[in-house]
Specification:
about 80 residues, mainly alpha, about 55% helix, globular
């Protein structure tokens, strides 16, 4: 899977787990709602610093946006 799409899917998963809209997530992370929308569709290529700024307000870490949720060896997977 394309890493940009993986990051977007993981961000959306974190956002929805906290019951946030894209607009609320944008307010928390300091980016625009349009950026969040593009990110979730795999159309953004965030820097390492941006990954940090996106993940921390949602209670995550940058690695949470990068790991493959389909990978059985992913960090935090009990299997």
């Amino acid at each position: 899977m394309d890493v940009r799409l993986q990051v977007g899917m993981n961000f959306k998963r974190l956002r929805l787990a906290r019951g946030l809209t894209q607009e609320q997530a944008a307010d928390l992370t300091g980016v625009s709602q349009q950026y969040i929308s593009g990110l979730e569709r795999g159309r953004r290529n965030p820097t390492v610093l941006t990954l940090h700024e996106l993940s921390r307000p949602l209670g995550g870490e940058p690695i949470d946006l990068l790991i493959s949720i389909d990978d059985p060896c992913a960090i935090g997977d009990p299997g």
